[in-house]
Write a structure and sequence with these properties.
Layout lengths: L4 E8 L6 E7 L3 E9 L15 H4 L7 E3 L4 E6 L3 E9 L2 E8 L4 E5 L6 H11 L2
Antiparallel strand pairs: 1-2, 1-8, 2-3, 3-5, 4-5, 6-7, 7-8
Length: 126
């Protein structure tokens, strides 16, 4: 599958906000770790589920969580249903849809997301 690759990119949660961080694509997961919250509006960090809420969620898959240092999104490649390159205005985005229909959007600004989408599709087999 090749080496792990990493991009500095923005994660756009459905609940709003923008987190700038590192997205690492490896053979078994796509992992985002925030460096800082970069939206214009303050977003409550509680939109990220705490790891301990997994049991409270009835055992459903929890892909997002936070601790005091960082917000994290971990997407197992086996759970990825599709990945697509999209545009909103001039902004280029990689949109990952999980098998449970949860959607994760990563914004790369005006830079192309083709290599990122190709890498995710390759490791996820989609």
């Amino acid at each position: 599958m090749g080496e792990d690759q990493e991009w500095t990119i923005n994660y756009l949660p459905d609940e709003g906000g923008r987190y700038t961080g590192k997205l690492r694509v490896s053979g078994d997961q796509v992992a985002f770790r925030s460096l800082y919250e970069s939206s214009n509006a303050t977003v409550v960090k509680a939109i990220f589920l705490d790891v301990t809420t997994f049991a409270a969620a009835g055992g459903h898959t929890v892909y997002r969580y936070s601790n005091d240092q960082e917000a994290v999104v971990e997407l197992p490649t086996a759970d990825i249903a599709s990945v697509a390159a999209t545009k909103k205005g001039l902004m280029k985005r990689a949109v990952i849809t999980m098998k449970n229909d949860e959607v994760f959007t990563f914004d790369y600004g005006m830079l192309s997301v083709k290599s990122l989408v190709a890498k995710i599709a390759s490791v996820a087999g989609v």
